Amino acid sequence: MMVDFGFASMAIILGVTFVEAPRDEGGYAMSKISMASFTLTQAIGTALAELYGHFISDRLPLYLFHRKSKSQDIEPTEWRPEYRLHCLWVPVIMLPIGLGLFGASLEYHYHWVLLALGFLLLTFGAISLLPVAMTYLCECFPNHVSEVSAGMGVWRLILGVLSAVFIAPWNDRVGPGWLFGTAGLITLPAFGGVIVLMVWGRQVRQMGIRRLRS
């Protein structure tokens, strides 16, 4: 999941740099006012992610639990944090689509509306991933919530800083189309680890260090 967030950070953090660049350098030559307006798509994507989390992050896991248990009464011993991971299906689909559309728009100079749509989708995907991942890890390690939160914060900071290091030479070598297209493709197999946790997450947690088990 954090791999997905790292790739999305490339566009979110450096997206303004691409749209400000001259057209002959692969950009959109937007003015300062146009760039400020363009970044509203990020705010819209974030707002949609908040709405998605508000209506889905608890309802879907509880629905899956009730359907499996055939009961409306929640027993703490039967609840599994892995139910929450199913909230990631929509974001993990939207993120590569957004990355691909964003990269293709830069590569072939599609209309700025398509560029904005890609930016919105990847923002929605990236922001929607984080709360689910955080909640899942906190439920897996209920006695170490502070450590989990700190670790996630450090990891996000590392990904954000590193993206600025390798994105420029990567873009110079292959162009924005291949850059973001490849990033979008990589997010798909990266989700395989989450699917493993969906199916065998309980067994994986039981294999962990005894004092950290939930």
From TrEMBL:
GO CC aspect terms: plasma membrane
Cleavable signal peptide: 1-21
Membrane topology category: Multi-pass membrane protein
Gene Ontology MF, one: transmembrane transporter activity
Keyword Isomerase among UniProt keywords: no
Record field: transmembrane: 87-106, 112-138, 150-171, 177-201
Cell compartments where the protein resides: Membrane
UniProt keyword annotations, A-Z: Membrane, Signal, Transmembrane, Transmembrane helix, Transport
Predominant cellular place of this UniProt entry's protein: membrane
Name of the protein in its database record: Polyamine transporter
Organism: Aspergillus kawachii (White koji mold)
Classification lineage: Eukaryota, Fungi, Dikarya, Ascomycota, Pezizomycotina
